[in-house]
Amino acid sequence: MKKGMWSLGILAIFFVLMSLIVPNAAQSEDTIKLGVTEPLSGTFKDIGTRYLEGVQYAAKVINEGGGLLGEKVQVIPIDSELKPDVATRKAQTVILKDNVKFFCGGTGSSVGEAMSQLAKRQNVIMFTYGMDAASMTGEKCNRNFFRPGGSTDGRSFAIAQMIVKKGFQKIGIIAQDYSFGHEAVDAFKKKLLQLNPKARTVAEIYHPLGTKDFAPYASQLIAAAPDVIFTPNWGNDLTLLLKQGRPMGLKAKVVSYYINDEVMIESLGDDNLILGDMGAEIYMVSIPTKKNEEFVQKFYKDEGHYPTWLRGKSYMAVMFWAEAVKKAGTTDVNKVIKAWEGLTYEGPAGTWTMRACDHQAQVPYWTAEIVKNNPFFKHAFVGPAVEVPAKDVEVPCDQTGCRMGQ
Amino acid sequence: MNEIFVFSLHGLAYAGLLFLVSAGLTLVFGMMNVLNFAHAAMYMLGAYFSYTQVTTTGLFWPSVIFCPLLLFILGALVERFLLRRVHIHGHLHELLLTFGLAYIITELVKWIWGNYPLAVNITGFLSKSIHLFGIIYPVYRLFVIFCAIMVGVAMALILYKTRMGIVLRASVNDGEMVDALGINVPLVMMGVFAFGSALSGFAGVIAGPLLSTYPGMAHEILVDAFVVIVVGGFGSLGGAVAASLLIGELQSFGVLLFPKLSLALVYLLMAGVLIVKPSGLFGAKQ
Predict the structure, then answer these.
(1) Nearest residue on chain A to B118, alpha-carbon basis
(2) Is A175 in the same domain as A275?
(3) CB B32 within 8 A of CB B192
(4) ipTM given for this complex
């Protein structure tokens, strides 16, 4: 009996603690609340945390500058656990409990799609700065979902343009064998042949997600002797490709989706594995505009580290959203949607325009090469970024597959 | 011709890694009948200990000895104070215990070293590449093959050629009888578990520079290790060797010949073996 009481007591304490963890807001009524769905635990905690830091910094900047419509912006972190059902359940709770009207997130297109559906149903706004699946502002678009960020199409197009400009003819491709990998490669090949019909794909290799031994793949790539290698790989699949491929004689320059991640570069442990490789992103700390230099300096002074890609991307998206709310002059969801459509934002990464037809921001991309000496880190990092204008990576409204009106 | 050589070498290196990872698991199962779910977590600990040792001293070689030693001590403690206590309650409890242990170790690793990948930097001869029959090949991969052979040979010699091996095998067959002969069977079992843990730690040290050192590495390798011992036969050392070789080569040539199937091939092999011989290639009939 005594034992039973003990476990009951422990259970009670457990539930009290759990209730403290559940997203809790509503300290004061006169704030504009922004829910941030990111994986804040588990394998992708590191990604989610960096995105969240960018959002929090944006809120800080807005609040220090007098707030938004005279009110403070309050960030509500929501641990999505990278599960669509968890993210929507928690979001639903804060919609009902705290009347949250705005959500954002950057990790996991599946989470984004579920949140997009929820936003439509509850008439709130969801926007993303990092979920890149093209279909989210394509066939699966809806009026409550915005993407003030990039997409697989845009990034693949930017990389194709860079490769053509550099004069590479023989292209090797290696990608993860799932929808994202194929989507990225298809977009890349489409643009590549448009820009240079003579370019040849000498290898097109797909490998399982989370491959441990890249030796057989590296041998195939080496045998195909490409001038350059394109890969949309991320995480370990990029690290191991370089780490295992380079010592086997994989000499060709690698052009990748996610090259400017300082955590990945540091985890390589050897700068020589990645020097000279290139990538494209919508934000890099090395963008040589005055606006960006000021932003990077101020961020470093405030936070003690640099707003490298993830932080920069979420920061800009939130600032863009704030512009839309400002223009609307109210937090009424329908009015903010109207105000955001067609709006332009001048940020650290150039001019962004929110297109009305699919709610996909038209943004320039930035390409850069990995260099040894950089002002940011002791290890190698991206050199000065070069702009690929937004119109060069545009997917015309009639080709996105988005039917917003119907 | 050259291609066949290159791809069989790739297969051999991967087989070496698989064998190193599964050797401790199959040993502990064969001798103690304990399916050690914490095995992969100990493998991860080996890699992380090695990371700390390499970054503080700049030397890789000492970690090949010290990290398995640490794991040996940890394994002995786990057996003495945890596993032995639940042993009388049967296999399910042992399974649950090691399962929980795996979670605890994984969370501890995240807590201590952080939730992001780390680099184990090797320098000197091991980090070089050499020309081998017209191709460039990393020395480290050859080192992995070498280590696997050494471990395999050492285990076989100890088990089948020494007095210790005889005592071990006898303890498995009839513990009470061996106990009556004046041999401390619990101590023998503690030694076996500690040695199994040291082996997994050794595998972690070796795998660290080749793969990434990060908190997900345990979970990822566990499936592979289980596939090896299921195909080879639970508890069979020879089976682990054969299965590692089979899977390593199958992976490598699968990529070359049937790229679309490369992920499924290993599991098809496992299904095939289980249909024909449910106890695995070298497994004893239950």
Answers:
(1) A267
(2) yes
(3) yes
(4) 0.89
